[in-house]
Amino acid sequence: MVKPLRKAVLPVAGLGTRFLPATKAMPKEMLPVVDKPLIQYAVDEARAAGIEQFCMVTGRGKTALIDHFDIAFELEATLAERNKREALALLRSEAMPPGSISTVRQQVPLGLGHAIWCARTFIGEDPFAILLPDDLVLSNTPCTEQLVKVYNETGGNVLAISEVPPAQTNRYGIVKVGEVKGDLVEVTGLVEKPAPEEAPSNLSVIGRYILLPEVVAYLSQMERGAGNEVQLTDAMAKMIGHTPFHGLKFEGKRFDCGDKVGFLEAQIAFSLARPDLADSVRTFLKNYVNS
Ligand code: UTP
Fold first, then answer.
1. How many Cβ atoms from other residues are within 10 Å of residue 285's Cβ?
2. How far is the CA of 66 from the centre of ligand 1 (A)?
3. Which of 20, 28, 172 has most ligand 1 atoms within 8 Å of its beta carbon, as the pocket-test mutant?
4. 69-126, pLDDT tens digit by residue?
5. What structural domains does the chain harbor?
6. What is the Cα–Cα distance from 92 to 72, expressed in whole angstroms?
């Protein structure tokens, strides 16, 4: 029996430099795709996978993320007064149970690994998921739920992985592949941002992970890796061989919303997946493309 997964860490302390000036006074994770901020997609996805406790690793200028999950009493009262039932029901359906979100500060963005280490007290002795809100996945079954299904069978660490163009391995954490069973891949090595000629495969880790708490001990070593940052990939690599370690070629498409083109593509794909918007979006897209 594996320990049930109930916790998720959401690292949101990055500077979001690729989205300046939008991210000057607003966190990147509050950027909306259609009508929902990135952080809300991540929380909804995690809750759908049975996660009940959240820890946001925040930094300066990130209070909008915390406020987003608060109850907006004045707004709710005004909506009720104006009989805006649908809007009110939407807000209420997304309300988080009291005490389910905690935050820690990463005072200096020293890397994703360092951000996760900042959540060590929250993690304690439990397995936990990590969701990077700037990675969005459009799928039939939410990506984290797909990982949880695997975790419940294999235990250990489970990463969402997807193929990238071989020339782009230097942008991602790349997996070395052992035994393959359908969509499930045994992870026998991990390298952060390898040059294409040194990459062990073209399967990259995306921003969805299930990890055992042991990773914190490796993160505590504070070794600097690619980009002189404390890399989560390097700490995960140290667990290989000690514990089951798998990658899942998940069903669905991933959008890198930390990148301008990826973000724009997500707007299109998510709006085309919405029955209330699909027709009008398809029509205007055709007009643009044909002009
Ligand atoms: P990115 O690599 O996208 O960095 O981080 P960034 O700072 O957010 O954006 P750019 O590259 O400057 O435009 C991936 C994820 O890791 C978090 C980010 O918030 C994002 O969710 N992160 C990164 C931290 O929480 N702390 C860090 O030190 C670095």
1. 13
2. 17
3. 28
4. 998 889 999 999 999 999 999 988 888 999 999 999 999 999 999 999 999 999 999 9
5. 7-258 (3.90.550.10), 259-291 (no CATH)
6. 10
